[in-house]
Amino acid sequence: MRRKTWKIAILSPPARHILCEKQGKINEAYKKLQDGWLNNGDKVPPAEFAKIAAECSECPSGKKGGDLGWFPRGEMAGPFQELACSTPVGATSDSNQRIFAHFLF
């Protein structure tokens, strides 16, 4: 009799991001988030984050509002994954330069 093997993937929370090669462009996106919500202590509504991601992100996910969905831990580059998994659900991170580009969640 053959034993069944189960694999369990530990997933990150669903994530949205804005990815830009240049610091100036990510700063522009972050300023829009600050001016609209963050400076008031508010959370950025997902639909509004999606609009800014579609407008500013250089990642193909920008067309989907920056939506990365769920991904298994260990699938993304270390610093990228660390920030994605450490940013509280519903919160927006500061802009960060990691690996090859600037991004925020």
Taking pLDDT < 50 over at least 5 consecutive residues as the criterion, the unreliable ranges are none
Radius of gyration, Cα only, in angstroms? Answer: 16 Å
Number of helices: 3
Q: What spatial form do the alpha-carbon principal axes imply?
A: elongated
Distance between the termini: 48 Å
> From the 3D coordinates, which CATH architecture would you assign?
Roll
Total domain count: 1
What's the CATH first level?
A: Alpha Beta
Largest sheet: number of strands, sense, barrel closure? 3 strands, antiparallel
Mean pLDDT: 80
Annotated CATH topology: Chitinase A, domain 3
Strand content: 5-15%
Note the run of SSEs as H and E. EEHHEHEE
Helix content: 25-40%
The number of distinct β-strands equals: 5
Structural class: alpha+beta
Q: Taking strands numbered 1, 2, ... along the chain, how are they ordered across the largest sheet?
A: 2-5-4
SSE layout and pairing:
Blueprint: E1 15-16, E2 18-20, H1 23-36, H2 46-56, E3 67-69, H3 78-86, E4 96-98, E5 101-104
Antiparallel strand pairs: 1-3, 2-5, 4-5
Organism: Phoenix dactylifera
EC number: 5.2.1.8
Keywords: Isomerase, Rotamase
Structural commentary:
The protein has 105 residues and is an alpha+beta fold. It has a single domain, classed as Roll (Chitinase A, domain 3). The protein is built from three helices and five strands, in the order ββααβαββ. It has helices at 23-36, 46-56, 78-86, and strands at residues 15-16, 18-20, 67-69, 96-98, 101-104. The strands form two sheets. The protein has a three-stranded antiparallel sheet. A two-stranded antiparallel ribbon has the order 1-3. β4 and β5 (101-104) form a beta hairpin. α1 (23-36) packs antiparallel against α2. The termini are far apart. The mean pLDDT is 80. Its EC number is 5.2.1.8. Belongs to the PpiC/parvulin rotamase family. PIN4 subfamily.
